[in-house]
């Protein structure tokens, strides 16, 4: 299993960060420009990653003000889990995105860089949006 992580500190209370992340409708704002055909509801999102794949994910687990887990709803090119953890840090919140992907050696060489960029982009956008 390939584990990709990105962590950011957001100067907002934990419940505000968690509430934002708990709606898949908000996740479009976190995506880079190579994501298109975005459709979402509170619990699910469908989108296309340019030159890669179409993905459909849904939030499978919520632990209020702690954790959100999203998993594919249709067969992805590889098994994947997206997990957001939030933790209080003084006046702010630490938000950590962990992408767990079951990649063979070839896929790992091709996909680990773009997946790391995606994770970093999402955490940075979260910080920009929520300040």
UniProtKB/TrEMBL annotation:
Q: Which SUPFAM superfamilies match?
A: Bet v1-like
State the source organism's domain of life: Bacteria
Q: What is this protein called in UniProt?
A: SRPBCC family protein
The lineage, from the top, is: Bacteria, Pseudomonadati, Bacteroidota, Sphingobacteriia, Sphingobacteriales
């Amino acid at each position: 299993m390939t584990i990709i992580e990105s962590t950011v500190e957001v100067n907002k209370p934990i419940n505000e960060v968690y509430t934002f992340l708990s709606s898949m409708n908000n996740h479009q704002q976190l995506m880079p420009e190579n994501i298109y055909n975005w459709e979402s509801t509170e619990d699910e999102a469908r989108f296309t990653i340019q030159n890669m794949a179409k993905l459909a994910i849904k939030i499978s687990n919520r632990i209020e003000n702690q954790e959100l887990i999203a998993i594919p709803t249709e067969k992805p090119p590889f098994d994947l889990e997206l997990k957001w953890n939030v933790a209080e840090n003084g006046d702010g919140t630490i938000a950590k995105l962990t992408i767990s992907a079951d990649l063979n050696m070839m896929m790992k060489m091709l996909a680990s860089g773009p997946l790391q960029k995606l994770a970093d982009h999402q955490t940075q956008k979260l910080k920009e949006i929520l300040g």
